[in-house]
Design a protein that fits this description.
By secondary structure, this protein is mainly α. The chain has a single domain, classed as Helix Hairpins (Orthogonal Bundle), CATH 1.10.287.3610. It has helices at about 5-30, 30-40, 45-50, 55-85, 90-120.
Length: about 120
């Protein structure tokens, strides 16, 4: 369904829907809450690890990617659960694929942060 709003009014409504998404993900997804805590704990180290603004942006961006992927994974899980609680091979596959995406985003963040850390300690 197309939004009845346009221009600035559409942007304001979209921001409200996004805020609802953040709140519901926080409320219903323990993994998202844990990742927010991890993000909060790691963010201050950006100023130690990153020497330039670009490096700091990269370090923050990879942490944000984990959160984005977790929200998308949660959306997939919500849709699958709405369809039915019973097991279906495709539903299981969708949930596993979402989980794999979260895992890869974590792996990417670890690689980037690890690379910066090694560079900082060795260099």
């Amino acid at each position: 369904m197309k939004s009845p709003h346009s221009g600035l009014k559409r942007v304001i409504h979209a921001a409200g829907y996004s805020w609802k998404g953040f709140k519901s993900t926080w409320k219903h997804e323990a993994a998202f809450r844990q990742e927010i805590v991890l993000f909060s704990l790691m963010s201050p180290f950006v100023f130690w690890l990153g020497d330039t603004a670009a490096e700091r942006v990269i370090l923050i961006a990879v942490l944000l990617i984990v959160l984005v992927v977790e929200i998308l994974n949660s959306a997939v899980e919500s849709i699958v659960d709405r369809i039915g609680e019973g097991y279906h091979e495709l539903s299981g596959r969708a949930k596993d694929q979402g989980s794999a995406a979260v895992f890869l985003s974590f792996f990417m963040a670890i690689l980037v942060w690890g690379g910066f850390l090694i560079s900082k300690l060795v260099g």
